[in-house]
Design brief:
alpha+beta, 13 helices, 12 strands, 30% helix, binds flavin-adenine dinucleotide, binds iron/sulfur cluster
Length: 329
């Protein structure tokens, strides 16, 4: 942190909203993304706001209807160490367990993971490296090195918990001066790598609420070095059996500037037997829904293949969990 950054720790949600209303102020969760960005001159916000003294943002609780709420300021490790929550939502625990390292999970917050900045190999570099390039969209310029024909930034959103929360049907409480509201987790993401969160100045995430009946689900992730790296691809799939059909949610991450729901594959899997051909087709269809660029660690083809492979593997696992045999009875 430079000497110009002020750290403020309010104890009321209204004060957080008021301070964030001033231009350039940002929430400081655990700082595991903000601090590296500050070190490389990618974050210049004059004020950082801590949430840990705000009660609503620092609790895990369950309401009368059995819905769990997770305060955004809780660390990933604190959530992982909550036995009832993790027993009810093993998919979420699987996603948290593979974020970075134990040390980072002990510091990083759940809100910071959902609001993690987008990344790109043309920008997340030391200043000396970047000084050889004119600014791109995300640095205030008028071009993109990863996608020269694109009119917007395509930096990668790499959160591991975002696909999990979306597949689980979580809702987020957005605190705001004018309009505090609940939104679906998917609606937090705009798909634009430069302004990737649908939050106005002064708005922030206070709580994440999970549905009372946890669906069956699987989370999986592909990364280059196990035990530390960001995902090159990740996914979460949930299924709720209905009388003659199923409600399926399939979400892939790290393929663009926000998580992507695979609605065509979801429709295919909603009815009929999950035989091998159907699972293969549902997994293959992902290649039509994702358009990664050459700005991650792995190339475009590798990332697409990783997503397809992860999907097939996750669907096979889910079929077993559902007790289905993959053939007509
Ligand atoms: C070596 C390394 C490996 C990593 N590997 C992974 C990985 O595998 N998977 C992964 O998902 N991440 C990974 N990360 C990124 C990061 O550590 C995590 O995403 C972490 O959860 C971020 O949380 P934080 O609280 O530290 O965020 P911070 O750095 O505090 O904040 C991140 C951003 O979110 C905003 N923010 C924080 N809380 C809120 C809120 N409540 N409302 C609105 N905005 C908010 C901040 O203003 C900031 O812009 C890695 C980081 C490092 C350094
Ligand atoms: S995707 Fe393009 S605009 Fe965005 S950070 Fe990378 S090079 Fe810059």
């Amino acid at each position: 942190m430079t000497t110009h950054t002020k750290m403020i720790e309010p104890s009321a949600a209204e004060d957080v909203t008021r301070i964030l209303g001033k231009p350039g102020s940002k929430i400081f969760g655990g700082g595991t993304d903000l601090v590296p960005n500050r070190t490389w001159g990618l974050d210049t916000s004059p004020t950082w706001v801590q949430l840990r003294r705000v009660p609503e943002a620092s609790l895990i609780s369950s309401d009368g209807e059995g819905r769990w709420s997770i305060g955004a300021a809780l660390t990933l490790q604190a959530v992982l160490e909550h036995p009832q929550l993790c027993a009810s939502y093993p998919l979420l625990a699987d996603a948290i367990r593979v974020v970075a390292t134990y040390e980072i999970r002990n510091q990083a917050t759940i809100g910071g993971n959902l609001c993690l900045d987008t990344r790109c190999r043309f920008r997340n570099q030391p200043p000396i490296w970047r000084s050889g390039l004119d600014p791109c969209f995300k640095s205030g310029g008028t071009r993109c090195y990863a996608a020269p024909r694109s009119s917007q930034c395509v930096a990668i959103f790499s959160s591991d918990t975002a696909p999990a929360f979306i597949a689980l049907g979580a809702q987020l409480k957005v605190q705001s001066q004018n309009n505090p509201r609940w939104i679906e987790a998917l609606d937090l993401y705009t798909g634009d790598g430069d302004h990737h969160l649908a939050l106005e100045t002064g708005e922030w995430i206070e709580t994440i609420r999970l549905p009372s009946s946890p669906p069956l689900g699987v989370f999986d992730k592909w990364r280059i070095r196990e035990g530390i790296d960001f995902p090159e691809a990740n996914l979460a799939i949930t299924v709720v059996p209905r009388e003659n059909s199923r409600e399926v949610r399939m979400v892939v991450g790290a393929m663009g500037s926000g998580p992507i729901r695979l609605r065509t594959s979801e429709r295919l899997l909603a009815e009929g037997v999950w035989d091998d051909d159907k699972l293969f087709l549902a997994a293959h269809m992902v290649t039509g829904s994702i358009h990664p660029y050459d700005n991650g660690q792995m190339g475009v083809v590798g990332r697409k293949r990783a997503a397809e492979h992860l999907l097939y593997r996750a669907l096979e696992k889910l079929r077993t969990m559902m007790g289905e045999k993959g053939e007509e009875a």
